[in-house]
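Example record for the data management plan.
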Amino acid sequence: MYRLLAFLVALCVPIIVSARPQLIEASIEEIQASLDSGDVTSVELVEWYLERIDAYDQQGPKLNAIQHRNVRAAEQAEALDAERKRSGPRSLLHGIPVVVKDNYETIDAPTTAGSVILEGHWPKRDATQVARLKAAGAIMLAKTTMHEFAYGWTTRGSAFGMTRNPYDVERHAGGSSGGTGAAVAANFAAAGMGSDTCGSIRVPSAHNNLVGLRGTQGLSSRHGIVPLSSSRDLGGPLTRSARDLAIMLDATVGYDPSDLQTVESVGKIPVSYHANLRRLDPKELRLGVLSGWFGDDRETNAQIERVLAKLDESGASIERLASPALERLHEATLPPHAYVVDDHDLIHDLTAYLQQYPSLPVRSFADLVEDGRLEGYVGELWRGLRDNKSLGSRAVYLEAHAQGQDIRRQILGLLAEHDIDALVYPTATEEAVALRAEQSHFNCKLAAASGMPAISVPAGFGEHGMPVAIELLAEPWAEQKLLNLAYTIEQLAPARQLPRHTP
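Corresponding structural encoding:
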């Protein structure tokens, strides 16, 4: 029955895409060229993407990736088309539709963090990164689904159910930014925004064949993003290529007086990541492979090794790193002790956020835990946090922070000792799991605990036909180097493919 349904959906696809086949998998630059030439307008772009959402989100494969639509998107596109005619585009994002994770506050749609408990919550303001995208001329087309309150690596929430992966609708899209991951992979928009506390940009990027960056802590403003951990939250883009990622970063990064953590970025961000993007000479690269960060999935490992072999054949120096000290470092990044900071922050930061809005039916983390509508597994985990008395200990919290700084020093020491450009390991040690199962990969914490930047790049497809990704981590403020590495890998070992369920 499922194969028949997929076949019938496929029969309908030409009706949707034949009018604009050039837009399938089109880059931001290619779309912008079509806008400049008059081959397409922003109004037509909005209509085309909405047609795909209509065909694939609640019908056909039923990805269930869209949480709220911006009902003014066409009107905003019309204004941007008129502005283009008058004075030209503001930037490469002028008139480009993007999607935004449902934990970013937006003027154009509610912000419910994937939870029915926050139904109707609409602060009527834009998070700083959304405001910057709109200032660059981008159109916020829709809000995407997310794991409820961003607390998980799949994407399930009481407000919407489960999001499906466009590469296999019986598997998860990753999380917590899985709605953005699925939507961008399925060409529901040119690019999208997510947030990463421990893998929530990189994991859905890996599972949806996208490029995703967790920047240096402080790279981008968290203002207007519903918090999980003020110590480790970071918002950023998920895109289909490194070039698109660079364009999105140019519009969103930098100092924001509403988020003092971003003061760390002053003087450390180039004028343009996009302008400085270039293919690196592999002969000049030295990469350190963290052998202990690979799991037991042989085909996932084989895809990572395929990319490494391509780099090696092109002249890159590949050094395998393994030692008792690295084994201890790996242990330090695994649960439960590696999540003390996140969980301590969650209780305090989410309470502080809720108390900004007296109209909400809940005022604290404790209120959320007691609400029976909370997604089942999140509720189970949160009740455990509520009952964990050690999370209230300031000494335990500070010790966990100190451990993060120790992880940072160890990584910097590795990079210096071995004269390495970046550390390499799988983004996720397994493919996306089946719906209702739980992911069991934990490579996200190395970057999250250290506050150092890491980028996830498509590496191929695993045993079950699901995307696999390689992650590269470098020193603080090395985002340009990581983007260039990702761009180089894209050229040497291209892996991006359109999902078969959303052709």
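Summary line stored alongside the record: The longest helix spans residues 394-417.
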